[in-house]
Structures
1.
Amino acid sequence: MNINSNESKEKTILFRESFVFVLDLIRYTELLEKKKKDSLAKKLFEAGTTFGKTVNEARFVEKNEKLYCKLKKMKKNAQNMKYLLQLCKYSATYPNPNNLISDLDTLTYRILKISETLK
């Protein structure tokens, strides 16, 4: 079964927004490294690049079943990143992640929106 053009448009928007998000996350992890917060920086970097890679892979999936699996993986990665970013936000010794949490919430909403069209 092929995805419809609206789903394809949503996937394109998700890819663009997630690409910008991951670039912003990379900048944030570099800031964490400068502040000697290497452990969390590494975890965030890995989670963010895995998320971005999965979003990129999903752009080229044509079967709904495979796309749904990719979306599940994205949601799991997003939840992990949000938890790590919240730790940073509420820790007195970490720099504030600024808009990263709200940007991630927007991406998660897009993922859920695409998932709903597959059901």
2.
Amino acid sequence: MKKVGILYHPKLPRAKAIAEELSHALESRKAAFWICSAWEQDSARRLLAGTDLLVALGGDGTILRTARVALPEATPILGARLGRVGFLCEVEPEEVVEKTGAFLDGQGWVEDRMMLGAILGTEGEERHALNDVVVGRGQRPRMIHVRACIDGYPFTTFAADAVILATPTGSTGYSMAAGGPLVHPDVQGIVMTPVAAHLSLSNPLVLPATVTVELQVLADHQAILTIDGQTDIPVRNGDTVRVRRSDRVTRFLRFGPSSHYYGVLSQRLKYKE
């Protein structure tokens, strides 16, 4: 018997309503399931063992939270678009019950998306990002200097508000807003994008996924390491953040062909009339 976990955005009434509708549908099929707020990640992790599918009801932020829950077992995620954009979402809200049932019947395929792993200084804890790792200024509106080394080679020192290291998945997020390129998720690479660079390199750079990038902060005021826009860690002057391709992946349940990505991109960015 397959087991389904349902994670919903707690501040979206429609997300909670769909979660309840889906739970009733799973009960009628006598399928195993559990339900939890996506903001209660520790509780969700305790329920994860043996789960075959995570249904994320919210927007891309909810999926990023769900991706962290899924990490220990690389459990596939089915994302429903209740947010404003939803680049990561596979289905519309009205399709959730149908597509979850299709999964229980053996339909669909699983897509793996690369992640980044970031280690701050010598602390040893690796944090995993589906979208991006950002080293940027803190609350004070002053730029920071970030010395970048690629595979041990000194590359440049950015004078900027931030430096973004994004996965292909994250190329449609903060990196895109800062002028970075859109990268197809099948392209295994890392996008390095400076934000508001001042008298320093301002061009984004696409790197192979095999490199290790070190970002050393040179600032006499607080800087911040941000993981997927949701986890903030203070960074001090002289600290180095080491970023590489993670050995973890995020897995998504898909139903359309792989070329469906272009349609999603066009629709979300409103390229079509």
3.
Amino acid sequence: MFLDKVEPTDQDRCVSDSTQQTSTLSRLKTAALLGFAAGMAYVVFAPSGVHRLSPDAYAIPTEIELQPLRHEALAPRDLAAAFDDAAHRAPSRYALPAGEIDVQAASVMGKKLVQVTGDGTLIEFTLDPMLQRAAQNALEKYKVEYGALVAVRPSTGEVLALAEYARDRPNLRHLALQAEGPAASIFKVISSAALLEYGALRPDDTICVHGGKRKLRTANLRPDARRDRKCETFSQALGSSNNVAFARWADQLLTPAQLQQVSDRFLFNRRLPFLWGVAASQARIPAGSRLGFARSAAGFEGTTLSPLHAALIAATVGNNGKMMAPRLVARASRDGEELYRAEPSVIADVMPADRAKQLAKMMVSTTTTGTGKKFFEKRGKRRLPGVDVGGKTGSLASHDTGLTKHYSWFVANAPVGADGTSDIAVAALVVNGKEWTVKGIVPVRELLDTYFLSKQTGGR
């Protein structure tokens, strides 16, 4: 959590000569007033407490940290004014009851999703009812083994959709907060950010390679003029998810420490602040293996990712390089009294705006010429005319437990504007067994269809 520390001013500590000459009773009254006012200020500005999740939470860390009521500093002023302001804004200390909050228990009230808890508290979610319904329907329609779909507003961190589905285990919860699956080629977004920064690579720089579609070997890292016939720009290689290109660029232009640093800046290996506990996505970049390092840069090994984090990574690219704290609850009230209101908060300055803009525009190649092209076209025409969609696919199979699991990812920003910013960021992970039902890109595309159709028809 990032709180502004409140320190009393010298004036607050001073006691005037006249006060020193007052009676003992007067001093006691003054001390009581100051103590009461300071206590109220603490109630408002101190961090909220740590809460426990309900027992049925699925594989989630049990301790969570909630956001404070406000993120404003107490300006230097007299304590009487501070007391009046505190009393007006928050008559009592309140912490969100995380264990009681359940999106599935919410109902539509007007254009908002609201849950009423057992004590009558109204929990107003940031979720868009239309997008939440569309996200849930998309997962259920394809009956994936399990999966999650998350949409956020890049500029604020508001979660607009948070859906999950497990075909054979309907009681599994918080799938979007798990980080058990490999990041796969979604990690090429992080590698691209590192190559733009440390490798001085430009979007139109070209490389020629061969092979490496499913495996990477040391031989792939060495240029071969006779066999290197597949030539692509940096932008095109990101769009086509060119494994050898990214492995070779990393080998030639980056160090493991540099890629690790950029990964950490994207908040890998860190717990994300959220209403519920979020498993930390992992990025362990090998420093002692040339091939291992190259494979990590291409997304083959060393990384895991949660769907919520994936959505925030896309949102960061679409928000001038700033990652916002994800927010699911907009406000809480009881008997007409506001108890809690969330405010936007930057949790990481990941990259400068100019590089974020470059990366956002590079990701558009995924849907125009790359691995997502056929999903964003219909009869040879763009499904969303006039809307540039930046995206990244990722796919990797795991056989570690003796069971085959195919992890299929897609992250997207849309529309990618002239300045690289976007209105919505979406991430989906679907896990299939031996039989595939759908790729992760499909539910994302359907959610974007719903979002932009609504905007065109004036539904938003």
